[in-house]
Amino acid sequence: MTLRILSVIAVVFGLLTLKAGGSVISNIGSARQVEGNFVPFVVWFNFLSGFFYIAAGIGLWLQRRWAVTLSIALVISISITYIVFGIHVLNGGPYEMRTVYAMALRTLVWGVISMVSYKQIMRHPR
Which of 11, 32, 57, 76 has the fewest beta carbons closer than 10 A? Predict the structure, then answer.
C-alpha cells in the first residue's frame, strides 16, 4: 500500500515538475519573472528529470525492479545537482531561496521513495 501511494506521489511530482520547469524554459506567461534568479542548469535538470519521475512512478506501481534502480539513480543525480547548485551559490551565483528548499524536498522525496521501493521490491519480491 505504501509503495502505491509513493508511486502516485512520484507521478504527480513529475507532472508538476514538467509544468513548472516547462513554463520557465518556454517563458510561458510571466514564469521567468516570477522565478526571479533561477539557475538555468537546475531548471533544465529538474524539467528533464520530471519525465523520469513519471516513468519511475509507473514502474513502482507495477512493482518493477528497474523502477527501483531508476529511483536510486534519481536520488543520486538530484543530490549531485544539489551539490553543484551549492557550489554555484558559494561562488556568489544568483539564486532564489525557494530553489534551496525545492532541491531539499526533491532529495528527501526520492530518498524515501528509493528506500521504500528497495525494501518492498528488491528485498521482498512478490
Answer: 76
Of the candidates 52, 73, 59, the residue with the CA atom closest to the CA atom of residue 3: 59
In angstroms, the CA 102 to CA 98 distance is 6
DSSP 40-76: HHHHHHHHHHHHHHHHHHHHHHTT-HHHHHHHHHHHH
| Distance of alpha carbon 80 from the chain centroid | 12
Arithmetic mean of pLDDT, 119-123? 87
> Rounded CA gap, 76 and 107, in Å?
8
CA distance 60 to 70: 10
Confidence tier at 77 by pLDDT (50, 70, 90): very high
Q: Any idea how long the chain is?
A: 126
> Ramachandran region of residue 38, left (φ > 0), alpha (ψ -120 to 50) or beta?
beta
Q: Which residues contact 99 (CB under 8 A, 6 or more apart)?
A: 38, 39, 42, 85
pLDDT digits 0-9 by tens, 32-61: 566 678 899 999 999 999 999 999 999 999
